[in-house]
Design a protein that fits this description.
Layout lengths: L1 H13 L2 H42 L5 H10 L5 H18 L4 H24 L2 H29 L8 H58 L19
Length: 240
């Protein structure tokens, strides 16, 4: 194992400067992608847990006005709680302005969609970098390999009879660049596909919540401006 590691280091050290530059770029790309992977894993995992907790509380039948005040008192929220906060605030504002039922509902839906777009943008942040690393790293590594092979054969131009022992070291040094390209690309591609799927699933959950909460607000708007939002509005959650 140690011998293999030393051999790889030796190949990198003995490689031509362009190949070394390519390997350095790929190492930086790999480190950046791993930093993004760990950060996105934490961010998306937290968003899923917060969505679970909020849904559990929302459908428990708690008073929605109290739930809104609790969220607002903590300086706002993200995720599903943030969508609820935006929608409830806009709905309450339009009711106080004595807007019509359709205006109340449409305004609340617009506010929730805006909050959803902001949340999805936050969750998708840096995923494009993973996609870029995953798609371009093999080609960058291949460029280093081609350059290294060209240099290896070029150095043999003045030799009348080249043997495998003379060609092999140069080709080995060049192929290291391809190996580093795959090393950077594979984790980035796997992580991108996994995180993109998780974000899509969260977006579907947000869509479903917006539709369900809009139904609650529609029933509430039909009651009249003096009826408070209370536990009865989301009592259906007890049947879930």
């Amino acid at each position: 194992m140690n011998g293999d590691q030393l051999s790889i280091l030796r190949l990198i050290v003995q490689a031509s400067v362009p190949v070394q530059v390519v390997i350095g770029i790929l190492l930086l790309a790999s480190l950046s992608s791993w930093a993004i992977i760990f950060r996105k894993r934490r961010v998306i995992g937290r968003a899923r847990r917060e969505a679970d907790r909020f849904e559990s509380r929302f459908w428990s039948g708690d008073d929605l006005a109290q739930l809104y005040r609790a969220i607002e008192s903590h300086g706002g929220a993200t995720g599903m709680a943030g969508i609820f906060e935006f929608g409830f605030r806009e709905f309450a504002r339009l009711r106080q302005a004595t807007a019509g039922q359709e205006q109340q509902l449409e305004g609340a839906r617009r506010a929730m969609r805006v909050a959803q777009l902001k949340e999805i943008d936050r969750l998708e942040h840096s995923l494009a970098t993973l996609a870029t690393v995953g798609s371009t790293s093999p080609y960058v590594g291949l460029f280093g390999t081609v350059w290294g092979i060209m240099s290896a054969f070029s150095s043999l131009g003045n030799i009348q009879q080249a043997t495998l022992a003379q060609v092999a070291p140069g080709i080995s040094e060049a192929l290291v660049a391809t190996a580093f390209g795959l090393f950077a690309a594979i984790p980035a591609v796997v992580a991108y596909n996994r995180f993109a799927d998780q974000v899509t699933r969260l977006e579907i959950r947000f869509d479903a919540f917006i539709e369900e909460f809009s139904t609650i607000l529609q029933r509430h708007a039909a009651r009249g401006a003096l009826t408070p939002v209370g536990a009865a509005d989301n009592s259906r959650g007890k049947e879930r």
